[in-house]
Design goal:
alpha/beta, Rossmann fold, 2 domains, 5-stranded parallel beta sheet, 4-stranded parallel beta sheet, globular, Glycosyltransferase family 1 protein
Length: 376
């Protein structure tokens, strides 16, 4: 239930490849329009749209389409665009009428904000850089307030106390989950990528005469992802070296179109405040496109990868960003080897079959025991 950046839909394909029956119920990752078997999109804004969606969900409950599963993975406690009171009602139904109910840790919720603000955690993130506030905290104080209302807090506490465990998509979320569940009830799976459906970009072994850089953004999340700063830095590089590089910039493109648009690029720019490469970077790497995104040593060490480290780590320092992009443009001879290594990295660590087996291994442990007790 729920989806973000095609995570659950791709996982479903991997599980089906391994012989399992899967149903995806989501809003299609909002503007991305990803596939789902049960549509949970809120097609009309406001109270009317919320009431229509609630009525549709109630019908789904009565029809039996949300009952009788061995496992339900819920994409964070906020898996449907409803208020906490209605979400609690939906969650309670799912909890009563299915066996294992687990959190897919891949997005924001109040505990995530707590983790980001904790100075004992990451060195930087969208909410905090060092000892000071991060860009999202500065630009969107009302957003932080909305995550921390008593209503949101109570609901988040309630759901976490009734999850049977959590499966994380990124190193960061895994660290967060370990603060709320015993270690045996947390598993890292990573982001599933359908590597076999993504062919290598053209002329992957050729040294580019002009480096083509791609940046695709969601306009409303530029500050959160740091793409505003990446865009400013890469523009300076393109202005300084117009004969050596060019930039393709797109906003809020549907998923199917987006994957095709990046294929003609040599380098893709993704997130600035993450320690771990996310879906956008992984999709590009699977096609042999070099990714500039989060790739801190903590992530590589966590997945036990000590040899193939092809991702160019982006850090929240504007001058360092400029130098990073400049170095890429001035050394195009490195790109072919990095491109091959990027594809190999994703095939090894994030192939949808690999990620699906991690889920299955974790579920098997839970399904072999009585239901987990409340754990918060």
């Amino acid at each position: 239930m729920g989806d973000a950046s095609n995570y659950h839909n791709c996982l479903a394909k991997g599980l089906e490849n391994l012989g399992h029956d899967v149903v995806v119920a989501s809003n299609g990752s909002t503007w991305m329009g990803t596939h789902r078997d049960i549509d949970l999109d809120r097609h009309i804004p406001g109270k009317v749209g919320g009431a229509i969606l609630a009525a549709r969900i109630k019908w789904l409950m009565m029809s039996g389409r949300l009952s009788g599963y061995d496992v339900v993975q819920i994409g964070t406690p906020f898996f449907v665009t409803q208020r906490p009171q209605r979400l609690k009602w939906i969650f309670d139904f799912i909890r009563r009428n299915n066996r294992l109910v687990l959190n897919s840790a891949y997005g924001a919720e109040p505990y995530w904000i707590d983790y980001c603000l904790d100075r004992g955690g990451m060195r930087y993130n969208e909410w905090r850089i060092g000892s000071g506030p991060g860009p999202l905290a500065v630009s969107s104080p009302d957003l932080m307030t909305s995550w921390n209302t008593p209503e949101m807090r109570h609901y988040n506490d309630y759901v976490f106390s009734r999850f049977d465990g959590a499966v994380s998509a990124l190193w960061e979320y895994n660290e967060e989950m370990l603060r709320h569940f015993p270690a045996e009830k947390v598993a890292y799976a990573g982001i599933p990528i359908d590597v076999d459906s993504l062919s290598l970009r053209p002329e992957i072994d050729s040294i580019p005469g002009k480096v083509r850089i791609f940046l695709g953004v969601h306009r409303d999340r530029m500050v959160e992802k740091g793409t505003d700063r990446m865009l400013a830095a890469v523009k300076k590089v393109v202005e300084r070296y117009p004969d050596k590089c060019e930039l393709t910039y797109v906003e809020s493109v549907p998923y199917k179109d987006y994957v095709g648009m990046m294929r003609s690029s040599h380098v893709i720019l993704d997130q600035l405040y993450s320690y771990t490469p996310a879906t956008n970077a992984m999709l590009a790497m699977a096609q042999g496109i070099v990714a500039v995104t989060g790739a801190e040593p903590e992530f590589y060490d966590f997945i036990d990868e000590h040899d193939n480290r092809p991702i160019i780590n982006a850090v929240p320092d504007d001058e360092a960003l400029f130098r990073t992009f400049e170095d890429i443009v001035l050394h195009p001879e490195r790109i072919p080897a990095q491109s091959r290594a990027s594809r190999d990295f994703v095939a090894t660590h994030n192939h949808l079959d690999v990620v699906s087996r991690r889920f299955l291994d974790f579920w098997a442990k839970g399904l072999s025991k009585p239901p987990f007790p409340n754990i918060c």
